Amino acid sequence: MKPAESFWLFLWFYLYLIHSTEKEVRNLSRYLHALATIGNIAPLLGLLGTVLGMIKAFMVIQEMGGWE
Q1: Integer CA distances (angstroms), 62 to 49, 51, 54, in order
Q2: What's the CA gap between 60 and 51, in Å, rounded?
Q3: Spatial distance between the Cα atoms of 1 and 7, rounded to a whole number of angstroms
Q4: Residues near 9 by Cβ (< 8 Å), separated by ≥ 6?
Q5: What does the alpha-carbon distance between residue 18 and residue 6 come to, in Å, rounded to a whole number?
Q6: Per-domain residue ranges of the chain
Q7: φ and ψ at 43, to 5 degrees?
Q8: What is the pTM of this model?
Q9: At 64, phi and psi to the nearest 5?
């Protein structure tokens, strides 16, 4: 392969790679907002589950006659 042909092949491959990468980044970034929202809500749901579990535990203790 001649050096000029090699250069054009490399240039074509480089531009194709950049185009493909930009296309994939656009496709993946569409769902980034939803993923960020889920990531922000997840710890709050865990805390809510802990609080509800503690309430349930104290209700069971109360039904059994308190701390006696």
Answers
A1: 20, 17, 12
A2: 14
A3: 10
A4: 1
A5: 18
A6: 1-30
A7: -65, -35
A8: 0.55
A9: -85, 0
How far is it, in rounded angstroms, from Cα 11 to Cα 43? 47
The pLDDT tens digits of the residues spanning 1-19 come to 777 788 889 999 999 999 9
Q: Is 34 helix (H, G, I), strand (E, B) or coil?
A: helix
Distance, C-alpha 18 to centroid of its chain: 25
Give the model confidence (pLDDT) of 11-49 as tens digits.
999 999 999 999 999 998 988 999 999 999 999 999 999
Identify the band that residue 68 occupies on the pLDDT scale cut at 50, 70 and 90.
low
> What pLDDT, on a 0 to 100 scale, did the predictor assign at position 57?
94
The length of the chain in residues reads 68
Name the one residue in this structure whose structure tokens are 């701390």: 67
Q: How far apart are the first and last CA of the chain?
A: 91
